[in-house]
């Protein structure tokens, strides 16, 4: 049986493959029945894109012989879906796509009673560069000129790029701090998604935006947006802009690690089975094409390595959001 997208309000996504180590199923190797995968964000956003990419890798490369049903549960920086997912204890067939900084920001910002440390880390998969952009009619030709104006008159520069406490907001806070501007003085207009941010930029309601290259690339290539910088280690193919590192601002970028979690209560054997699934997916030619298409770079952090990254970034995120006056 081929992987099947059972969509409605759903987006198909990740994970399937051969078992690693001892099977967790009484009747056969993992997975021996359908997977249920949650994307805790809206269709069209970053989590949705990743979900669709994982789903296509599963089906096109025939990684597993089971169905994968994926549901979108958007809202509150992923914490509405997180609260639902936390109830699925002990079930290795329940998985959730997320990324570290965005969800940690949502947890702090919304004072979520559920923290990522209570779940089972499966693996970090990839990182995706973000770009700082302005509309084509903008007078700003480079990031320095824009930051000069923000330093002189912080409220004159209106930023947009996701929700309060999201990676974009935290990066902007770092840029402001580097110019001696208090994080709380940043004029940041929160949005629920990339489409809303784009409308704010094109209408002139926002001065500058910050979002993933994958989401911004169509408007950049169409000439509607002008990139001023990217936060990747090296220049991003097809994006005519310097890296923040080249501009001496690499330390201000907040990089998020995309990955997959499982519920609490899994045994070590069950955790290893799910890790094995993802390892099969990430090594497939289909997934490598997904990485290339979305300008993502692989950053494989299985199991406890992923858990360590989440714990470290929890401290980083809490500190930055405290400076922004969020989550107190």
Which terms summarize this structure?
18% strand, six-stranded mixed β-sheet, D-Maltodextrin-Binding Protein, domain 2, globular
What does this protein look like?
The chain has helices at residues 46-60, 79-85, 100-109, 143-152, 167-178, 194-203, 213-221, 268-282, 285-293, 304-324, and strands at residues 35-39, 68-72, 94-99, 120-127, 130-135, 158-160, 187-189, 208-212, 225-230, 258-262, 297-302. It has 328 residues and is of the alpha/beta class. Helices cover 36% and strands 18% of the residues. It contains ten helices and eleven strands.
CATH superfamily of the largest domain: Bordetella uptake gene, domain 1
Number of domains: 2
Provide the β-strand percentage band. Answer: 15-25%
The first-level CATH class of the largest domain is given as: Alpha Beta
- Mean pLDDT rating: 86
Q: Give the count of helical stretches.
A: 10
Principal-axes shape call? globular
Structural class call reads: alpha/beta
SS elements, strand count:
11
Which parts are unreliable, with pLDDT below 50 for 5 consecutive residues or more? 1-28
Helix content: 25-40%
CATH fold-type name of the largest domain: D-Maltodextrin-Binding Protein, domain 2
Strand order of the largest sheet: 2-1-3-10-4-11
Q: Tell me the series of helices and strands, N- to C-terminal.
A: EHEHEHEEHEHEHEHEEHHEH
